[in-house]
Amino acid sequence: MSHTSTQVGAEHFQYLAQRTAGDDAFLVQLKAAAIQAGIPAIQVAPEQISLLAILLRLISAEQVVEVGTLAGYSAIGMARALPADARLLTIEYSPKHAEFAATWVAKSDVAQVVEVVQGSGQNILPTLPDDSIDAVFLDADKAGYPAYLREAMRFVRPGGLIMADNAFAFGQLFDEKPTDPEVGAVRAFNDFIPTIEGLKAVIVPIGDGLWVGVKE
Ligand SMILES: C[S@@+](CC[C@H](N)C(=O)[O-])C[C@H]1O[C@@H](n2cnc3c(N)ncnc32)[C@H](O)[C@@H]1O
Fold first, then answer.
1. What confidence tier does 2 reach under pLDDT thresholds 50, 70, 90?
2. pLDDT tens column, 166-209
3. Which of 42, 96, 125, 208 to mutate to test the pocket of ligand 1 (most atoms within 8 A of CB)?
4. Residue 77 CB–ligand 1 contact under 6 Å
5. Domain boundaries along the sequence of the chain
């Protein structure tokens, strides 16, 4: 059996995106309204939502935490994969983003599931009880990821998921002179994850690279 991998390029990304469910009318409206409100279009790709939703279903997730709400796109996408009595807590530092997201969550089909909390991951994650969460999705300040991961290893239950976006550093992972100030933090986090005992993780090359890990 060959161990040669296919080199995934832009064509593959386009190909798989075209074969994955896209946004429904509500999410299309949410994105347009976010741009109108001056919120940057830096949400995850629709195919990442598909993968997150499948993974949450596979582990029968009921308690989910997200760090980095932005406009609420990924929170709503993930919440749709959860049962009606589940809870998805999404943490957003920017008051403007949190208010926008809360407004759109309230209008969505998962208003009873999603709770938008304005605050920082640094302050809120330590308040979560041990082994109480089925899955966490990190999609916020990259310098904060190592501390978020350490916390996640405490509050995620055994068999739960720890996922983090932007492993490919906004497309600048291998740039000699990256322009994005967070590239260094992403590289450091990518090197840090494999050192964590009790976490089996892999980068899934969709969107901007999605770390998917299971806590043993
Ligand atoms: C890439 S966006 C999140 C996108 C969102 N997950 C989605 O796909 O729809 C990152 C968000 O993290 C927020 N953020 C930055 N630092 C944060 C922190 N320390 N705690 C919580 N949120 C933070 C930013 O304000 C921004 O809205």
1. low
2. 999 999 999 999 999 999 999 999 999 999 999 999 999 999 99
3. 42
4. no
5. 10-215
**pLDDT score at 8:** 85
Ligand 1 pocket residue status of 120, Cβ below 6 Å = yes
Cβ pair 66, 136 in contact under 8 A: yes
Does the 10-215 domain belong in CATH 3.40.50.2300? Answer: no
**91 Rama sector, left if φ>0, alpha if ψ -120 to 50, beta otherwise:** beta
In this structure, the number of other CB atoms found within 10 A of the CB of residue 115 comes to: 15
Distance 163 CA to ligand 1 centre (A): 14
Angle at 176 between CA 171 and CA 181, to 5 degrees: 60
Residues 6+ apart with CB under 8 A from 193: 149, 164, 199, 201, 211, 213
Longest dimension (CA), the chain: 53
Between 50 and 9, the more confident residue is 50
| Cα 7 to averaged position of ligand 1 atoms, centre (Å) | 30
Q: Are strands 156-165 and 210-215 parallel, antiparallel or unpaired?
A: antiparallel
Q: Which two structure tokens, joined as six digits, stand for 173?
A: 């992972």
Length of the chain: 216
